UniProtKB/TrEMBL annotation:
<keyword id="KW-0808">Transferase</keyword>
<dbReference type="InterPro" id="IPR036097">
    <property type="entry name" value="HisK_dim/P_sf"/>
</dbReference>
<dbReference type="GO" id="GO:0000155">
    <property type="term" value="F:phosphorelay sensor kinase activity"/>
</dbReference>
<dbReference type="Pfam" id="PF02518">
    <property type="entry name" value="HATPase_c"/>
</dbReference>
<dbReference type="InterPro" id="IPR005467">
    <property type="entry name" value="His_kinase_dom"/>
</dbReference>
<dbReference type="InterPro" id="IPR031930">
    <property type="entry name" value="HK_sensor"/>
</dbReference>
<dbReference type="InterPro" id="IPR003594">
    <property type="entry name" value="HATPase_dom"/>
</dbReference>
<feature type="domain" description="Histidine kinase">
    <location>
        <begin position="237"/>
        <end position="443"/>
    </location>
</feature>
<keyword id="KW-0597">Phosphoprotein</keyword>
<keyword id="KW-0902">Two-component regulatory system</keyword>
<dbReference type="Pfam" id="PF00672">
    <property type="entry name" value="HAMP"/>
</dbReference>
<keyword id="KW-1133">Transmembrane helix</keyword>
<keyword id="KW-0418">Kinase</keyword>
<protein>
    <recommendedName>
        <fullName>histidine kinase</fullName>
        <ecNumber>2.7.13.3</ecNumber>
    </recommendedName>
</protein>
<dbReference type="InterPro" id="IPR050428">
    <property type="entry name" value="TCS_sensor_his_kinase"/>
</dbReference>
<dbReference type="Pfam" id="PF00512">
    <property type="entry name" value="HisKA"/>
</dbReference>
<dbReference type="InterPro" id="IPR036890">
    <property type="entry name" value="HATPase_C_sf"/>
</dbReference>
């Protein structure tokens, strides 16, 4: 669909404006040229007044002298026709042909605008100074103002449209080619791998197809930069976490432990490293998922009972220490395995950081089209400034929270699982303890 700010409409306006501008400018220039060429130049006017003065001198000597003067100029330029009185009637005694008499009906003043009629040869009258008579003559082509018309027409009809076309091309370049050149530089920057180079704000803010393309490229650049940053951080964290079990294995190998104790230590450290690698790979896999998971209706009461029994078995807690207040109709749209893993990780995290005889409780409440779930423990909580950091991989922020030395991957996996299901997870301090809130779409 063509939006209100589509590039198509900009192109339409640009082309239409260019055409209208060219027509208007060319028409205006042509009119100005015609107006300029319609009047005789001052040099020609002086020459014509000279002929009128000569004719007046001849007329002072009589009509015969005037006719003799006319005969002298018969083969010259301009063509002398006749002398007329104030009523523009030919004076008696001047021989005129029928063609010349017919020309007298199309007289115009020598200072009036000229016309292209009759091939451009104008029949004009020039008043004699101090007399009522006027000299009538026909201008030859060299004295007409149209001699330079072909050159001026070429300037108006060819050079001016060419200049306007250059302006149009410049506007077109600014509208299309310049943004595309910026996009090309952005793509080359991605190829050269300095992903810190982002799109200029003026291009990213465009509300047309080029702006959408620029924002998509900018989003891709940010995603690549974040992905590479996460991978590098993940490698640094994994290498850091692996140093501890490897160091313990080196110490055990150099110690005087018995074969049985050495084997137990080896099995323990291998299990820890396997747990670390499995969690790291799962976080990386969840980060690489392009979209949401396939969702289905999940009964949270049934799911909670399964997770609660497993947690009681693993922790050895008394049943009354893990409780829930879930309505009977608490059903959400979710991915069963992913939601189960997220809740299990959160529950294990709550148990791990609970004090002796601490309680863990799950409750739910309906809010519009979503269910809000809250899992609360009675541990020391987390500093307010670090509530968002607990969902980052390998985050172990508060040494005051007791635990068994996990790798800090459980909440990171839970956050990614919930996000892939179209939900949201966040943390609050419960005073005492930590509250982990979930928002999931209701069935």
């Amino acid at each position: 669909m063509l939006g209100r700010r589509s590039l198509y409409w900009r192109m339409v306006l640009l082309v239409a404006g260019f055409c209208l501008c060219m027509i208007a400018v060319t028409d205006y220039a042509a009119q100005r040229v015609d107006s300029y060429l319609a009047h005789l130049p001052e040099s020609t006017l002086r020459e014509l007044r000279g002929y009128a003065a000569d004719a007046a001198s001849a007329l002072d000597q009589g009509v015969d002298a005037l006719n003799a003067w006319r005969d002298q100029h018969a083969e010259l330029s301009p063509e002398i026709l006749v002398v007329v009185d104030a009523a523009l009637q030919a004076l008696p005694g001047q021989p005129l042909s029928d063609e010349q008499r017919n020309m007298l009906t199309f007289l115009r003043s020598y200072t009036a605008p000229m016309s292209m009629r009759g091939g451009g040869r104008q029949v004009i009258y020039v008043p004699m100074q101090g007399r009522d008579e006027s000299l009538v003559l026909r201008l030859p082509e060299p004295l007409t103002p149209w001699a330079v018309r072909p050159l001026l027409n070429a300037l108006v009809l060819y050079l001016m449209p060419a200049l306007l076309s250059l302006l149009f091309c410049a506007l077109l370049y600014m509208l299309l080619i310049s943004p595309l050149e910026r996009l090309r530089r952005q793509a080359n920057a991605m190829r050269a791998n300095p992903l810190e180079t982002l799109l200029p704000a003026e291009l990213a803010g465009r509300r047309d197809e080029l702006g959408e393309l620029g924002r998509s490229l900018d989003y891709l650049t940010r995603r690549l930069r974040d992905s590479i940053g996460q991978q590098r951080q993940l490698l640094r964290d994994v290498s850091h976490e692996l140093r501890t079990p490897l160091s313990r294995l080196r110490v055990a190998a150099e110690s005087d432990l018995s074969q049985r104790e050495l084997r137990e230590r080896l099995e323990h450290e291998v299990d820890r490293m396997q747990e670390l690698l499995d969690g790291t790979l799962e976080v990386a896999w969840l980060d690489s998922q392009p979209g949401q998971l396939q969702l289905e209706a999940v009964d949270l009461n049934a799911l909670w009972e399964v997770l609660r029994e497993d947690a009681l078995f693993e922790s050895g807690w008394a049943p009354e220490r893990i409780s829930a207040e879930l309505p009977d109709d608490c059903r959400v749209q979710g991915h069963l395995n992913g939601l189960s893993q997220a809740l299990e990780n959160v529950l294990r995290n709550a148990i791990r950081h609970s004090p002796d005889n601490g309680l863990v409780q799950m409750r739910a409440q309906r809010e519009g089209a979503n269910w809000l779930l809250c899992l609360a423990d009675q541990g020391p909580g987390v500093e307010e400034a670090q509530l968002e950091q607990i969902f980052r991989p390998f985050s172990r922020l508060n040494s005051a929270r007791p635990g068994d030395g996990g790798f800090g991957l459980g909440l990171a996996i839970a956050e990614r699982q919930i996000r892939l299901q179209g939900g949201r997870i966040w943390a609050r301090n419960g005073h005492p303890g930590l509250q982990l809130w979930f928002s999931l779409r209701a069935v």
